[in-house]
Amino acid sequence: MSKRRAVLLLRERFRSSFFAHHRDRRTSIHRPRAVDSPHCSSAATYSSSRSRASPRPAMEAMTHNGLWSSGASDKNKAMVEQLQRYGVIKSTKVAEVMEAIDRGLFVPPGASPYFDSPMAIGYNATISAPHMHAACLELLEGHLQPGMRALDVGSGTGYLTACFALMVGPEGRAVGVEHIPELVASSTENIKKSAADPQLKDGSLSIHIADGREGWPELAPYDCIHVGAAAPQIPEALIEQLKPGGRMVIPVGTVFQELKVVDKKLDGTVSVRDETSVRYVPLTSKDAQLHSN
Q1: pLDDT tens by residue, 237-249
Q2: CA–CA separation, 131 vs 160, rounded Å?
Q3: Catalytic residue among 17, 128, 155, 187
Q4: Counting beta carbons within 10 angstroms of the beta carbon of residue 52, is it exposed (0 to 12), middle (13 to 18) or buried (19 or more)?
């Protein structure tokens, strides 16, 4: 099974399972619009029109094996192994990092951290589903090598930024940008409890309060940039902060959105390709996020 096919099946199963169990909870992913997450910690799901074959046999297999049964994937390692079995994680390095950074340290108390769904984290924000984190890490792995620099726009609880830190190592830099001060404070505490704490202490991992649309120019250029909300077009500031030879993953669009893979060539020219259809809320301001309905 291809990685794209596996993620599509995960997305379809998530929609039916999650809404069936949580239809009465008011979280940002239940808003009656074509989005799944607020700005600074996306809960994106794949929604591709490229594949319309019936997913029922594979979904039944996943249900039987416990991927979607509440509490079945109750340990971080088991969660990663499930994502490997269904082809979402192919890279050994991505698997090692997701095993090392325990997702349970980055979700609110009482949540089911290893269940493959996005979760509300307050301030109209969410943490993405594990399969989305895995997909983005897979796309960016070649640009998260030791010594490289990574920017995480909309760092939320700090989970993906911590993963970036382990991948680039103490000789690199992992930078998170989040415009909700309370999330910056809580994400820092989350990271202190994780395997990325040494890099927080030595300064090679940092979280900053800022408008992600402007990136973090102080530490640019970056070998990779991850953006967790949909922009109407790719922000010029982020293109400028991408290093020649680097890659950015960013959702772009309004009602209809595509996850774009942006590669800056060594000569400075930029190429953009569509990875798959996704659903995010807009890349927006702090006030707009806090006062959204």
Answers
A1: 999 999 999 999 9
A2: 12
A3: 128
A4: exposed
User: Please, what is the angle between helix 181-192 and helix 159-168, to 10°?
Assistant: 50
In angstroms, the CA 146 to CA 95 distance is 16
215 to each of 168, 198, 263, how far by Cα in Å? 19, 24, 17
pLDDT given at position 18 = 35
Cα separations (Å) of 236 from 143, 191, 253?
20, 30, 15
Instruction: Determine the Cα–Cα distance for residues 267 and 57; give it in Å rounded to an integer.
Output: 47
**Residues 6 or more apart whose Cβ sits within 8 Å of residue 201:** none
SS3 279: coil
Which one, of 77, 123, 119, 111, lies nearest residue 97 by Cα? Answer: 77
- The radius of gyration of the chain's CA atoms, rounded to the nearest angstrom, is 17
The secondary structure of residue 194, as a DSSP letter, is S
Q: Is 204 a catalytic residue?
A: no
pTM assigned to the model: 0.78
Is the Cβ–Cβ distance between 148 and 244 less than 8 Å?
A: no
